[in-house]
């Protein structure tokens, strides 16, 4: 054997070839094992990575990035499936923000993307553009061919889908790619559930803290608008809403009045809506918290409101409904309304309690004022008027003792002054005993003042009886309309130099009289205005009369409008 010849192992040429193949196969398998080990390590790193933060949005973004890294995909996306089986959110990877902006609106889950929504099983294909359900790409969308889709499950619920496209260095994704992404999706479901539970827990903690703050405010002196403004502001902060509204409901007029506005809108407090023409009717009729898809389309708004979804919670107690609390979100922000609906209903209960407490506080303060006014009225009636009346009687008994006629005349004048003073005091007593609401007396006085300029003098106004408290609200507009028409007729036709207006409440009737010293009402005068006055009296079961001024007036007209109350 030559010195430079390798030692023989007793193998022939064919055996050596076979041995080389076995060694190469072993090396390939070792390589596969190493590659699988590296891929498994990468998968474990990805699982750990997606679980490092409990912020839901960040978690979804890390899932997409990890899936692209594991499968070698150039582009990736995670579509969140909504209750209507459409994509409500779309997180992308691989495209620049400028590219995403050029593409425009996010997909809704039609075409190939809808396959996973209709049938949540992994989908792998070499060319997405050749699939029968391919919907095509919008303008400015990068070209894509190879595709891998895997559903993301939370227990038995499909949260969303992972979409991967454009396998790097290969024509299509492999079975190994599919298996590793399926394994990542299983771990991702747990991470998403943890992030959602954390978000819900954190938001509920914020709701409870806000509710505690509102409770502390309600235990102190509270004003209705101030308490509702605080509730609206805290509801907007906690829910991340774009706009929060508090609308009060009036069942008699079927109106919703905007009481509080918190958010960026031209809508202002005091605006009114017809309740039956809004989408809030289920909340008003007792169906609990409802969700509307678009706040802008839910009613005819006298201002701009967002077009995004909104939750509407009733503000009410067991006895009555006060209104609704509306929490609206920006259409560009995806929210899961169900997470906040329970806490919003609790918060709406706080708002209803604020209304009840504010009303009770206002009634208590009003009662204190009325009790004090009643005491003053009682003292005026029982003490001052009686003394004046006694003084007048003493003066009248002194008239026969006065020897000179001038003395008797002066005593009679003093008695007349005392009678006038007693009438003024009685008027003050009625005003004291009237509710602390906008007074009808003030409206009558303003109307008489308005007639001063066209007449050239101020008519005399005499109000007797509990006008403010006894005249119903439904009668007040007709009373003021009749007085306005009567004064207008005096200005146009009477040429009067004196006008006396009397409004009297006594014996269950309201009576308005307008007496002037003018030329009287001609028989051929236009009667349309007078017919309207008679109709207003008839509608309340009353009477209307127009007659010449009684003696001792030499001329003029007396208008009498009287109704039962």
From TrEMBL:
Alphabetical list of Gene3D superfamilies matching this protein: 1.20.5.1930, 3.30.450.40, Histidine kinase-like ATPase, C-terminal domain (3.30.565.10)
Record bears the keyword Metal-binding: yes
Keywords of the record: Cytoplasm, Iron, Kinase, Magnesium, Metal-binding, Phosphoprotein, Transferase, Two-component regulatory system
Biological process annotations from GO: detection of hypoxia
Domain GAF intervals: 55-202, 223-365
Cofactor: Mg(2+); heme
Pfam families for this protein: GAF_2, HATPase_c, HisKA_3
GO MF entry, a single one: oxygen binding
Domain of life: Bacteria
Gene Ontology, cellular component aspect: membrane
Record-linked InterPro entries: GAF (IPR003018), GAF-like_dom_sf (IPR029016), HATPase_C_sf (IPR036890), HATPase_dom (IPR003594), Sensor_HK_TwoCompSys (IPR050482), Sig_transdc_His_kin_sub3_dim/P (IPR011712)
Signal peptide residues on this chain, from the entry's feature table: none
PANTHER family found in the cross-reference section: NITRATE/NITRITE SENSOR PROTEIN NARX-RELATED, OXYGEN SENSOR HISTIDINE KINASE RESPONSE REGULATOR DOST
Name of the protein in question: Signal transduction histidine kinase
Organism: Catenuloplanes atrovinosus
Lineage per the UniProt record: Bacteria, Bacillati, Actinomycetota, Actinomycetes, Micromonosporales
């Amino acid at each position: 054997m030559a010195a430079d010849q390798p030692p023989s192992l007793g193998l022939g040429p064919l055996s050596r070839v076979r041995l080389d193949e076995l060694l190469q196969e072993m090396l390939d398998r070792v390589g596969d094992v190493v590659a699988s080990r590296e891929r498994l390590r990468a998968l474990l790193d990805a699982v750990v990575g997606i679980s490092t933060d409990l912020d839901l949005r960040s978690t979804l973004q890390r899932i997409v990035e990890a899936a692209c890294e594991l499968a070698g995909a150039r582009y990736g996306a995670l579509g969140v499936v909504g209750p209507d089986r459409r994509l409500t959110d779309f997180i992308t990877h691989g495209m620049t923000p400028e590219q995403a902006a050029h593409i425009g609106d996010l997909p809704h889950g039609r075409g190939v993307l809808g396959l996973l929504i209709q049938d949540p099983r992994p989908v792998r294909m070499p060319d997405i553009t050749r699939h029968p359900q391919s919907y095509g790409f919008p303008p400015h969308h990068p070209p894509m061919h190879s595709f891998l889709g895997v559903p993301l499950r939370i227990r038995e619920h499909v949260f969303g889908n992972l979409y991967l496209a454009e396998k790097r260095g290969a024509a299509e994704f492999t079975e190994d790619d599919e298996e590793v992404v399926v394994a990542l999706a299983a771990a991702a479901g747990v991470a998403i559930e943890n992030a959602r539970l954390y978000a819900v827990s954190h938001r509920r903690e914020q709701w409870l803290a806000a509710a505690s703050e509102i409770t502390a405010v309600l235990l102190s002196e509270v004003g209705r608008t101030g308490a509702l403004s605080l509730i609206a502001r805290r509801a907007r902060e906690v829910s991340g809403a774009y706009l929060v509204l508090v609308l009060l409901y009036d069942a008699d007029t079927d109106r919703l009045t905007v009481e509080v506005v918190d958010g960026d809108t031209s809508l202002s407090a005091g605006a009114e809506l017809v309740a039956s023409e809004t989408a809030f009717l289920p909340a008003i009729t007792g169906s609990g918290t409802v969700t509307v898809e678009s706040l802008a389309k839910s009613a005819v708004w006298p201002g701009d409101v967002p077009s995004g979804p909104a939750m509407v919670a009733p503000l009410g107690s067991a006895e009555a409904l006060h209104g609704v609390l509306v929490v609206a979100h920006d259409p560009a922000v995806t929210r899961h309304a169900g997470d906040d609906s329970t806490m919003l209903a609790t918060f709406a209960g706080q708002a209803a309690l604020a209304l009840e407490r504010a009303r009770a506080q206002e009634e208590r303060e009003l009662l204190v004022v009325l009790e004090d006014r009643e005491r003053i009225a009682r003292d005026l009636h029982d003490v001052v008027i009686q003394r004046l009346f006694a003084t007048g009687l003493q003066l009248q008994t002194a008239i026969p003792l006065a020897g000179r006629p001038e003395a008797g005349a002066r005593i009679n004048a003093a008695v007349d002054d005392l009678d006038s003073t007693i009438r003024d005091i009685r008027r003050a007593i009625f005003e004291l005993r009237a509710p602390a609401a906008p007074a009808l007396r003030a409206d009558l006085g303003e109307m008489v003042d308005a007639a001063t300029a066209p007449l050239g003098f101020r008519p005399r106004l005499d109000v007797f009886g509990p006008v403010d408290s006894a005249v119903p609200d439904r009668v007040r507009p007709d009373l003021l309309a009749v007085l306005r028409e009567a004064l207008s007729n005096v200005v146009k036709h009477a040429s009067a130099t004196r006008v006396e207006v009397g409004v009297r409440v006594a014996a269950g009737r309201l009576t308005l009289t307008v007496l002037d010293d003018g030329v009287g009402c001609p028989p051929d005068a236009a009667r349309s205005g007078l017919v309207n006055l008679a109709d207003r009296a008839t509608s309340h079961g009353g009477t209307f009369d127009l007659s010449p001024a009684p003696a001792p007036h030499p001329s003029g007209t007396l208008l009498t409008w009287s109704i039962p109350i």
